[in-house]
Design goal:
- This protein has 333 residues and is of the alpha/beta class.
- The chain has two domains: 2-140 and 283-330, Quinone Oxidoreductase, Chain A, domain 1 (Alpha-Beta Complex); 151-279, 3-Layer(aba) Sandwich (Rossmann fold).
- Helix content is 27%, strand content 26%.
- It has helices at 38-44, 92-96, 132-135, 138-149, 166-177, 190-198, 212-220, 235-244, 267-273, 290-294, 312-320, and strands at 2-8, 11-16, 26-35, 59-67, 79-82, 115-119, 123-125, 158-162, 182-186, 203-205, 225-230, 245-253, 276-279, 303-308, 326-330.
- The strands form three sheets. Strands 3, 4, 5, 6, 7, 14 and 15 form a seven-stranded mixed β-sheet that branches.
- Helix 1 (38-44) crosses helix 11 (312-320) and helix 4 crosses helix 5 (166-177).
- The radius of gyration is 20 Å and the shape is globular.
- The two termini are 13 Å apart.
- The relative contact order is 0.16.
- Bound molecules: zinc ion (ZN) (2 copies).
Amino acid sequence: MRVMTWLGGDRFELSEVPDPTPGPDQVVARVDTVGICGTDVHITQGLFPGTPPTVLGHEGSGEIVAVGDGVPTSRIGERVAMETTSHCGVCENCRTWSLARCENSVWSSGFFAEFSVLPSQSASRIPDGMTLETAALTEPASCCLSGVSRLAIPENAVAVVIGGGLMGLFTLAFLKSHGVETAVMSEPVQSRRLFAKDLGADVLHDPAESDISELVNDLTGGRGAHIAAEAVGKPALVAKCAEIVRERGDVLMIGVCPQGSALPVDLFDFHYKEITLQGAFGRGNVFADTPEAISNLNLDGVISGRYSLDKVPQAIKDSGDGKGIKMVIKPNG
Ligand SMILES: [Zn+2]
Ligand SMILES: [Zn+2]
C-alpha cells in the first residue's frame, strides 16, 4: 500500500510498504477519508510536538477489510470512524479522568495511508445512513461533544460561541442539542456564520461590526450569558468570554491557546462573579457516541477540499492558510 510519511518540517515522503495484517484484537480498515486537523498543521510548523518520521492524520473513516484473533468476523465490511489512540478502561486516568488520557494507551499509526491497522476498539461503527466523509468528522466533533457534555446547562440558557471554524460550529450544534435555548455565533466570516445558522444558531454576530458584549447585554437584559465558549485559541477571546458570562457562568475553552499564554483578566471579577473556567481537550469518553450525535446535523458543505494521498503537503498548506472549513485526504480516491 501507499503511505505518506512526515519527515519533519514541511517535508513528506510517499512510499510503498507491505499491506498491514491484523494482530490479535486488531482490525485493518481501508481508509476512505482523513480530515486535516489544525494539529497536523501545527506539527509541521513546529508549534505542536511531533517526532518524525511518523504518519500523521488522526481523523479517519473507512471500512473494515480484515480482523485479527478475538474480533468477530462479522465486523468485516463494517463502516467505521477511527481514532489513533486506545484506552484500557481500568487505569486511574480512564476511571477518574478521561478515556482519551489512558495511561496505557496504544498509539496507532496515522491515517495518511491506503490501509490502517488499529485496535478493534478504536474503530467505531457509524449509522447506516451516514457517509464516510461525515464519519471522518467524528474525532473533532467528539472533542466538542466531550466539552459540552460536562457543562450543567440551565433552563432558558443563553450561550455564546466565539469562532465559527469547525470546532465552534460543532460546539454550537451540541450546545443546542443539549438544551441551550438561545445560541449566539460570533464569527467574522459570513459563510461560517451561515453554516452556524444551519446548525441551529439563533443569533449571528459579526465582531467586525460591533462588540459582542453589547449584543449579549441587549439579549440578556444586562445579566450576561450563561455559557460562553471560545473556539479560536486566543487568550484575549477567552477573557472576552469571562466578561460576557453572568454570575456563576461557565466559560468553555475549546480552542487551543499557545503554550505559555496567560489569561488577561481581572481576577477580582472572576472571584466576584464566581465564574467557572472549563478546559476541554480530546474526545473524553464520547468517541463511540459521536457518529450518532452528528448524524442529524446539516453538515453539507463543511468539507471544502478533497485531496489525493500524494497531495497531503498541499492540503496541509491550504488548511494552514485558512482556506475553507475542512480539508480532507482521500487515500484511495
Ligand atoms: Zn484533530
Ligand atoms: Zn486506561
